[in-house]
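Teaching assistant's notes for section 4

Start the section by putting this record on the projector. Ask students to predict, before seeing the second block, whether Chromosomal replication initiation protein will look compact or extended. Collect guesses on the board.
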Amino acid sequence: NHYGETLYNSWFSKVNFIESSLNTVILCAPTNFVRDWIKSKYSMVILQLFQHYNNTIKSIEIITKELPGTTQTVIELPTKTFADIGSSELNSENIFSTLDVRFTFDNFVVGAPNELAYAAARAVAESSGAVSESNPLFLYGGVGLGKTHLMHAIGWYIKQNNPSRKVIYMSAEKFMYQFVKALRNKEVISFKEKFRSVDVLMIDDIQFICGKDSTQEEFFHTFNTLIDNNRQMVISCDRSPSDLDNIEDRIKSRLG
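Reveal the predicted structure now:
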């Protein structure tokens, strides 16, 4: 009431509560623009509002329904999505992150810091249906070392050389959003079938699920199902498994 109905209808009416976990409240905004505007103008107000009802809340995190990168200003290049890859079941929903044609093995700059990661990623891509020796393949390091580039390169290589293999590449944020959506719509069984029937699952920036208990639980069971059925997992992170905070030990053990 303090800020008025017009402000609420314009900016907050389509912001949804996702979950509260480990002192953090997670909200979902409809677009990147709305998310950024609310974060810049009202993040402290929202935090104080939640703290009024629960004084253990320490932070607010706002995610978005948009695919990563959809509002970035870049030189325009042709892009495709993994909606082209695999079964019609997976093609039925636009849940895949954009696959950038610039990120291939041919234009990856190999150097001492990433030589081993490049070789392992190449082995995964060239496995031709068999699981590589690196399963799961866990890529970690700081910004600029080529983790996302290698994941895109794996996807493009498989698409071009073994298109019958079903592959999903997506961010951990998008994985969480799709899981929460499935819970809300009572479509969890369908969600599980989609993610547990692929040949290769690649999840970027797994550190995003730190502190998200329900998402961690689903990821753990998805991970186990795929590994136990000799399906390939590729995961990226900004740090090593042992350095991940607020993530279950059983997940650390499987990653590391």
